[in-house]
Amino acid sequence: MSGxxxxxxxxxxxxxxxxxxKESESKMSLYQSSARYAAGSSSTSRSRGLKVxxxxxxxxxxxxxxxxxxxxxxxxxxxENQIIGYVVPIFRGSEEFATGYSNTEETRVRGTSxxxxxxxxxxxxxxxxxxxxxSRKEAMRESAQRISLSKTxxxxxxxxxxxxxxxxxxxxxxxxxxxxxxxxxxQCVRLHCTVSxxxxxxxxxxxxxxxxxPLASPGKxxxxxxxxxxxxxxxxxxxxxxAQYRVSAMNSKGELSAFASVVVKRFKxxxxxxxxxxxRSLTGDGPVxxxxxxxxxxxxxxxxxxFGREGETMSLGCTVIIYPALHRYQPEVxxxxxxxxxxxxxxHHMRWSGDRATLTMTHLxxxxxxxxxxxxxxxSGYETYSAYVFVRDADAEVEGAPGAPLxxxxxxxxxxxxxxxxxxxxxxxxxxxxxxxxxxxxxGTTHWFQCNDTPVKFARFxxxxxxxxxxxxxxxxxxxxxxxxxxxxxSEAVAAMDPADRARMRGTSAPWTGQIIVTEEEPAESVVPGxxxxxxxxxxxxxxxxxxxxPPGEKGLEGVMYYVEKCVSGTDSWQRVNTEIPVKSxxxxxxxxxxxxxxxxxxRCCNSAGVGEPSDPTEATTVGDKLDIxxxxxxxxxxxxTDTSVVVSWEASRDAKxxxxxxxxxxxxxxxxxxxxxxxxxxxxxxxxHGLMTGEKYMxxxxxxxxxxxxxxxxxxxxVEVKAAIASPTPPYGITVLECVRDSMVLAWKQPTFIGxxxxxxxxxxxxxxxxxxxxxxxxxxxxxxxxxxxRVSDLKENKKYQFQVRAANMxxxxxxxxxxxxxxxxEWTIAVPGPPHDLQIREVRSDSLVLLWKPxxxxxxxxxxxxxxxxxxxxxxxxxxxxxxxxxxxxxxxxIKNLKEGETxxxxxxxQNKAGVxxxxxxxxxxxxxxxxxxxxxxxxxxxxxxxxxxxxxxDMTADSKFxxxxxxxxxxxxxxxxxxxxxxxxxxxxxxPGEEDIGIYSCLVTHTDGASSSYTLSEEELKRxxxxxxxxxxxxxxxxxxxxxxLMEKGRVRFWLQAExxxxxxxxxxxxxxxxxxxxxKYKMNFDKNTGVIEMIMxxxxxxxxxxxxxxxxxxxxxxxxxxVLIGDVFKQLQKESEFQRKExxxxxxxxxxxxxxxxxxxxxxVVLKCKVGNMKxxxxxxxxxxxxxxxxxxxxxxxxxxxxxxxxxxxxxDAGVYEVILKDDRxxxxxxxxxxxxxxxxxxxxxxxxxANSSTPLKITTTDEGIRLYTFVSYYNDLLQVTWHYKDSxxxxxxxxxxxxxxxxxxxxxxxxxxxxxxxxxxxFNDGKGGLRRTVDLCGQAFDDAFAEFQRLKxxxxxxxxxxxxxxxxxxxxxxxxxxxxxxTCNISGNPVPEVTWLKNxxxxxxxxxxxxxxxxxKFASFTITAVNTSDSGKYSILVKNKYGTESGDFTxxxxxxxxxxxxxx
Length: 1469
Hints:
- By secondary structure, the protein is mainly beta.
- It is 11% helix and 41% strand.
């Protein structure tokens, strides 16, 4: 046992021998020893006749990841291969390694074991010890041999694995499967498993077959994978976590799943208070939920019949209402297609949002076509809803190519081939399909490989050349002469292996039978296998033949392979088909057989011992399609169903084998274009074709399909119009009594809610007598159908009680009767007030109004009915909410009810009155919402060109049986003398034959077989008059004019008379008249008539006095006429003639150089005046001469432009620039002159414009101060001496004086207020006069502004006074005085200051005083003198005079330098 541990268990501690306890290890060794010595009794284990095929040798299971032999199966089976129990093999010692042992060694071991077993109890101890010693030596020798042999085998197997990499790969296998758990709520649970496999499997966890995504529920799930151990942790479990969990492991060799359940329990006492305690049903009837609640499920907001195209995404959804709504309760929501349950996949995504179930098909294919059903299951039952989904082919990549095949699947998969089957498409692209190509792709790759070189027509094909154990997907493409179709949807992945191997990999287990049988296997030598059994041809086409057989009975324990041989019938020459590669599976597909020839086949088995005998040959098989194309279906019968669908049924194809289904095609009559109704074959012989055009007529045809191909089309059906099927009407309802006399009763009832698609032709009334509450037999009240919804039932018995029922009839037949009415007593009414009105109808429903109609009561009462009252209330309001619509009784049998609230639902009733009072109320109407339905039209009134007045109504919701019913005052019009009606399609017209006062009234139109489509039009007296006026205008039409006849001048002074008509045809004509004389085309008159624009004109070259008069244009267009006149006489004519002459002269002038714009001026922002004119038609020779007052001032020659501007600039204009300016243009073509008068008023206007520019450039008026006073000032960009400026104080002009002065400094204009006082406070302004309104700049000199300015003035004034009176040394002192010793020095300077300053003299910064040597004088307070009578060298130095008074101090410095003459001369030498 120590060597038989599989490789994937070596890494787990609990499989290691060293992990066992000593006691367990001792018991295991004893058990192995006993098993060794018990080998001699192996013959007794076969007494039951059972055998188990089990191999667990070391050389197989230890060294190879995938055993070469079959996996051990411990199932006991009988002769019929039925499982009857489990078999536990005996643990063996040496026999586990019997391979390679000689028969002699085996005999010796068995003999030794037998002698030891028969040893007598009384044998001496010595002999016993000797025997045991011999046995131990033999066991040791055998153990050494086993170890040596196992090492050899191990090395051999390791070498084989290195040589063949594929032998390492094997499918996933669960070493430890996940365990089920039961936990309390809010606890955590952990599921884990150990998985082996190569390549490493991909592990996915599922909850109720839905993949778990940890990111979708953060913190809820935690997935881990470490060292082949995979775990799922569920955090804080709740009721929703109770489910079956599946872990799936998959690699390229296969897939395997394991299951575990988690049950979450809740502590008692923690049940939600909102839920009642669980209870049991006493009767056992009806569903009872977990909490004793019966759920009611309603599916609303449903999806309808849907249409999609391949490649698109489609979502189907329904809203599910479950009552009562419980917190956390989730129903089971399932989706089915054609009654097959859908599971989540990459093609189908299911979602439940709590109240809406959604199925999303991410990529539509024709496989998705079918009947989809939503099933919602609760503990109280289930509800379903179904609708069909149609999927059309995607647009072909090549025009004319067929549609893609569909439903690709694998029928038979084994080691050697896989049979791929598919269904043919419904669309062949207009050309018959030549065949199909099958492509394969290995799972895990993206490369597609084409399996067949030539297209196959049969819809099945065996794909060979596969690698054993690998998984593949397949797709199919159809081809015709136009090209290749799109590929089909890929098939499910399938592995190339035998079904038994595939089942073993999926881990299927046998049921427990309670019986355990212990067997032992004997080793067997390799033997030549026997004959294969039951060889037969399972499928034969013209492209291939498939053989199948059973393995031979005598094949030994070694696997066998097969050789297939073929023989042409009539010969005895057998040819081996698969010479190079033997077949591993008991199935084989043969290709390249000659079509039409007959062959026989046989099979041989082979193994390492040799090739066995051939099997019995098959009977002769002719190569060709055994399966015939089905015959064409029989008669096709279409039946009306809805407005967009037709039910098609047909006779099935006769003797059709392996029928796949039928394709149905439809064609609009006379279109000769057939379109498929379904793209996925249907099994039955009845199908509903949806998506048809309402009102169109269609024909249908059907063809059958099987694997051999598509049949011929069935005969075309008869044409059927697409409209709702006719059925008998539903029962009437609301039976009431309108009148009762001694032997009769008048009944009324309401129209059925569904009339069956055809008009109701009549009603039948039955009655029965009720005696003591027991009803009797029904009796016919009328034999002939009645058209009204009221009928008098006669021959009744007075004071007897009766019940009634009513049946409606149409062309489809008589419907089922209504429910029996209430029991009515037949007794004569004697009340004075009238009975109830009846037959209430509602029309013309709009968002704010509707029209209510009724019929008067049959029972009038004591007096005739003289009026009606209408009551209204909201549909869901209580009875107390009834209120009257009209306070005064109306005599009419209809009323328009207005002021309704949009979207609100209302009900109505009517009461009649006579002189005795108000009678019984009528039956209440059905609830009516005040909503204007989409597409609602109103009656429109039109007057055609012939003056005919008509009312027109259009309905967009008509059916084939709809009719327009016109009424006047809500009574159907039967007399056609006043009104004629016409109907074309969905439009109806009512034409007034001779409109007059007799036609005044309310006209309405009702469309039958619609949802109340109706409208009305009130023809009042005023409206009639308006329409008659319009009618007269249309009978006697006038050509409308956009403009009346007018005149205008053109170039050269030509005169144009014109008018424009709004609309005139090409047949219109015009007459031109002057003073009652017709004018014609000529030199003087040019006539034009543009019929596209309606412009009519007449052009004259010039006007003469003879042209004064009246001009008229007369128009005629069919019977429409009109005219327009223009009178040109007197001053009007003269002014026009004068203007014409002027325009003619202007034209002549412009033939040479001329002025386009005459001489003018403009003022620039710099206040320069520019004289300019614009000239045209210039050339190089043209000259422009400028003149002022007759004197030339400028000449422009050689102008280089044909059109331009001439300029003369006057800078700083003044009075001297006033004068008359002229410009003359001259060349050989003539001359032109322009004059500008700038004198007097002209000059004033110019200067005013200059002044305006100056004024606008002025800055805001500002305040400043000087030592003299306050100054107001502004700046201008340019100042002109002619500018007139006025200063204002408090809106009055200022009179200037010595104290108030104004002036100009450069571009500054100022006003000086000298010695200001508080009286000068106020508003000041400066006004610029520009001859127009002028411009003012203002400033407020008051308050803080004045205080600040005045304070600053005082400061400046004081500073000026101090500066003016302070002590100063005015001058007279030199900087340096050089004087000869002995000379006299006398310096004098001027001194100023008030008061008279003090004078101090300094020498070398020391004060000196006057003495005999230095005499200092200060005379008259103005002159200071400095005298030295005889200078000497000591007098040299720096001298200063310092003057000082109370306003300041100032000094004057000079330097005295005394020299000796001799020294000076010596220095010169």
